[in-house]
Amino acid sequence: MIAAFLFILSLFSALSPSHSQRPTDIRIDCGATEKSTIDGIEWLPDTGYISSGTPKNVMTKDLLQTLATVRTFPLKNNLFKKFCYEIQVVLGRTTKYMVRTTYFYGGIGGDSNPRPPVFDQIVDGTLWAVVNTTEDYMNGNSAYYEGIFKPTGKNLSVCLAANTFTDSDPFISSLEVVPLWDQLYNSTDFNTYALSLVARHSFGFSGSIIKYPDDQFDRYWEPFGESNSPSLSSENVSVSGIWNVPPVRVFTTRLAKEQPEPLVLMWPPASLPNSTYYIALYFADDRVSTSSRMLDITINGITYYNNLSLTPTGVVVFASQWPLSGLTNLTLTPSTGSNIGPLINAGEVFQMLTVGGKTLARDVVAIESLKQSFHNPPVDWNGDPCLPRQYSWTGVTCSEGPRIRIVTLNLTGMGLSGLISPNISKMTALTTISLKGLEILHLEDNRLGGQIASLLGNLKNLRELFVYNNNLTGQVPSNIAGKPGLNLRVTPGNPFLILPQS
Ligand SMILES: *[C@@H]1O[C@H](CO)[C@@H](O)[C@H](O)[C@H]1NC(C)=O
Ligand SMILES: *[C@@H]1O[C@H](CO)[C@@H](O)[C@H](O)[C@H]1NC(C)=O
Ligand SMILES: *[C@@H]1O[C@H](CO)[C@@H](O)[C@H](O)[C@H]1NC(C)=O
Ligand SMILES: *[C@@H]1O[C@H](CO)[C@@H](O)[C@H](O)[C@H]1NC(C)=O
Ligand SMILES: *[C@@H]1O[C@H](CO)[C@@H](O)[C@H](O)[C@H]1NC(C)=O
Ligand SMILES: *[C@@H]1O[C@H](CO)[C@@H](O)[C@H](O)[C@H]1NC(C)=O
Ligand SMILES: *[C@@H]1O[C@H](CO)[C@@H](O)[C@H](O)[C@H]1NC(C)=O
Ligand SMILES: *[C@@H]1O[C@H](CO)[C@@H](O)[C@H](O)[C@H]1NC(C)=O
Ligand SMILES: *[C@@H]1O[C@H](CO)[C@@H](O)[C@H](O)[C@H]1NC(C)=O
Ligand SMILES: *[C@@H]1O[C@H](CO)[C@@H](O)[C@H](O)[C@H]1NC(C)=O
After folding, report:
1. I want to staple 418 with a disulfide (CB 3.0 to 4.6 A). Which of 221, 247, 335, 374 is the partner?
2. Cα 471 to ligand 10 centroid, rounded to whole Å
3. How is it placed in the membrane, per its record (predicted)?
4. What ligand 3 atom has the least distance to the C-alpha of 183?
5. CA triplet 8, 11, 12: central angle to 5 degrees?
6. How confident is the model at residue 5 (pLDDT cuts 50, 70, 90)?
């Protein structure tokens, strides 16, 4: 189970042209052909970010612009494994990014597929979540997923992939990538972990989702629990200095007890898989007083924090790795000696994901340049070539262990055309820069032209080279023809190739 959140379709979008988003934020309206601006946020069409899939219009009327189109990814009998958006990360890979994907099915699979498909979503080499929007869609809502990731390369890739439950074409409505300041969630080591949002709530609040411009990073703070205390205006709140920079507005409402008695919340509301979680709870005292409001906090009966003193300037208590499983309860009790009722303003819970790692950088460079030399590379040659394991590029197999290298390239009969040679610079990439671990290279049954690069003979581990049934020319280089232990097949086909003397 991974959380999907309700997201009420907004039929009318308020115009607030006075705000403008930060230029480094990237908002992609998948399947759209034109730019649009909604609530001061600019959305771009997705064509510059993806080379596969088909744009479609959703039939449902009166939708928010970003939900009105999707991009779908034809499965072709699962021939292709993953479909990736590639986002250039302008602030570099030391910055972490909030990634949000939004899904509204809108019946694009036709009458034979009334329910949305279930599929996987991936960021770089990390399997992020199973996307199951069935329940939200049945309720007329879109669903979104949000996570925090540090890119592993110059591009961040966000991919969709079929899993064993997928019964129609995966689709996506929108994709957002927003850089976060270093200080946000900085107790987490984002080289090792990513965070996947489970819940983010503004307590005692019943309006529509709090987001940009209240939250400068456009995180979504959903309403949770009605409060009978009146809200304050943001001018009456003096919260500052909290590293995660929650919006001031979440401190204007609260869930509270008037009497000094425990406040129990069943929160987060969903049943959670057994895993470790990042939890942040936010508080600000709403009175100026000499007697301080002190809380003891427990989660499922386990002490989370004792004698927390609330102040009008705000305080956060976070746990960077807290185990949770199933339903959760959060209890706030006045500390011994404190006779003022407890309160809470906001909270966030993320599941911690261990990041999937990355393919050896030199191999990535080499295979990217091989990809450039094909006119028609396989559509799933995007994202990390080897990872996640079950979603390596078509035809690519990789080594196990911590150093992940490409060991096999089986591109048999993939209808490839292009010149793998004589553009030696590219083959140089293949041979001398990298792919030193390559053992098997199958390029047979394609339409590849040009000569066989002698540099292939330098691949120390190469033991199978099949290039028959192409349109190669020139001579078979002697260091390849004579390479001991190499199983070489150049015929049939290749009528213009000069065969080695045997
Ligand atoms: C990186 O992403 C940009 C678009 O943001 C794309 O044009 C480029 O081809 C991508 N690079 C790679 C290696 O995929
Ligand atoms: C998807 O969610 C629906 C509704 O919650 C559930 O009935 C279904 O079993 C889920 N499908 C998968 C494959 O998890
Ligand atoms: C997190 O950011 C704050 C504010 O910049 C800084 O004081 C603190 O040392 C940082 N913590 C870590 C673990 O980097
Ligand atoms: C809120 O702030 C305004 C302006 O500073 C002030 O006039 C008002 O009395 C304050 N209200 C409360 C409840 O503190
Ligand atoms: C959660 O998983 C851990 C480690 O796999 C195990 O020790 C623990 O008992 C599990 N907890 C629950 C509540 O299932
Ligand atoms: C909260 O969780 C603890 C531990 O699971 C349980 O003993 C307690 O009964 C729960 N309290 C409520 C109000 O559900
Ligand atoms: C909390 O504060 C009370 C009163 O100041 C003190 O007696 C108690 O030991 C404190 N508890 C902890 C866990 O520090
Ligand atoms: C290469 O891929 C083709 C098509 O998927 C498959 O039939 C063949 O068995 C594979 N060859 C090797 C050596 O894995
Ligand atoms: C060979 O590669 C270079 C550099 O990438 C490129 O400019 C050139 O057009 C390529 N030549 C052919 C014949 O593909
Ligand atoms: C095969 O290569 C020859 C010689 O370079 C060329 O004339 C011919 O057009 C090529 N055929 C195909 C089908 O690419």
Report:
1. 374
2. 6
3. Single-pass membrane protein
4. 2
5. 120
6. very low
Pocket residue to mutate for ligand 9, from 426, 427, 473, most atoms within 8 A of Cβ: 426
CATH topology assigned to domain 26-180: Jelly Rolls (2.60.120)
Using DSSP bridges, classify how beta strands 497-498 and 471-475 pair: parallel, antiparallel or unpaired. Answer: parallel
198-354 has the same fold as 26-180: yes
Domain locations along the chain:
26-180, 198-354, 361-498
> CATH number of the domain at 198-354, please?
2.60.120.260
- For residue 124, how far is its CA from the centre of ligand 1 (angstroms)? 13
Distance 293 CA to ligand 1 centre (A): 53
Best residue among 234, 236, 252 to mutate for probing ligand 4, ranked by most atoms within 8 Å of CB: 236
Alpha helices in 113-184 (DSSP H): 134-138
pTM above 0.85, yes or no: yes
Residue 261 vs residues 19, 229, 296, 331, 339: alpha-carbon distances, Å = 43, 16, 11, 10, 9
Residue 17 has pLDDT above 60, yes or no: no
Could you tell me which CATH number the domain at 361-498 has?
A: 3.80.10.10
Query: What mean pLDDT comes out for the span 1-28?
Result: 52
Higher pLDDT, 135 or 12: 135
